[in-house]
């Protein structure tokens, strides 16, 4: 079955979509696409919204501080500079809000 995707967020190099049938969520940032079940995405997004950059970042070989975010998938992580992280976290917050609004409207 081919998924029909509803866009929860589209912002520059980031998008979040959800299949109307199976409810899987795809998080696309630059050239990385991570897939989650609806429940996994909600748990991951809630966790992400409580992460602070400074205490969780490390200095990388290019001289920039970056944060590494686990996706819950073996060997798949996101890495962000502080400005990228702030854009990403805000986008995930917006997508989660859109998902909740759609659930309320559908009576789920």
Automatic annotation (TrEMBL):
It comes from the Bacteria. InterPro entries: DUF6686. It holds the Pfam family DUF6686. This is Uncharacterized protein.
């Amino acid at each position: 079955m081919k998924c029909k995707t509803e866009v929860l967020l589209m912002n520059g190099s980031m998008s979040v979509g959800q299949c109307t049938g199976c409810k899987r969520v795809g998080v696309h940032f630059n050239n990385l696409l991570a897939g989650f079940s609806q429940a996994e995405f909600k748990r991951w997004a809630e966790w992400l919204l409580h992460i602070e950059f400074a205490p969780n970042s490390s200095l990388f070989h290019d001289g920039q501080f970056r944060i590494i975010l686990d996706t819950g998938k073996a060997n798949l992580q996101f890495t962000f500079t502080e400005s990228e992280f702030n854009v990403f976290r805000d986008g995930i917050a917006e997508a989660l809000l859109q998902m909740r609004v759609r659930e309320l409207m559908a009576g789920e």
